[in-house]
Amino acid sequence: MNGEMRSERSRGDVIVLADAVGTVAFVVTALTAAIVFSTAAQWVGAVTAMGLFAVGVFAFLWSFYNAVQRSRDEEISVTQIYLLVGDPTPPRVRWTMLSLLGIQCVTAMATALARPDGPDGSPGSSLAVGILVPMFGIGLNGLWCAFNGVFDSRKEPGRTVQVSEKGASESDSVSVVAPRTHPIDKNEDHV
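-> structure tokens emitted (191 positions)
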């Protein structure tokens, strides 16, 4: 039983750990770049931010693909996947990953607003690249939920009933579709 609980607890924890490590790396490099504000520190901060953004985009696309595959058999919503809303995500994972996403957003905004100008006084600084980092958190949220979320099975679609002039009986009123007597024109309202 201890082995079962251990494997259940570690399922998807690699993604949570990667999110935490990436967030810490971003916070450290972004704050260092904002405080020191040297060219080298800005480069390290910008490269870290772009790297995390690239990983986030890849994770987002991978999670989206997997979620689409699962949606054929399971009821899945976008908010469940990327914002970890509802039952598919355990509270511990939801709280951890959404907290990390919040830290990414706050750090990105704070460092970008703290130094809006470059070291030479010209408008704009490399710290603005940090605004892209929350894509890392969103992508990993999706990756965790797409692979580890527990969703309800898709419900059986309703039976389609053709309606005659007499109408449909109550037992057949699951899903009613009236027969169309003419073809639908290109710009005609679809009823």
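The radius of gyration is 24 Å.
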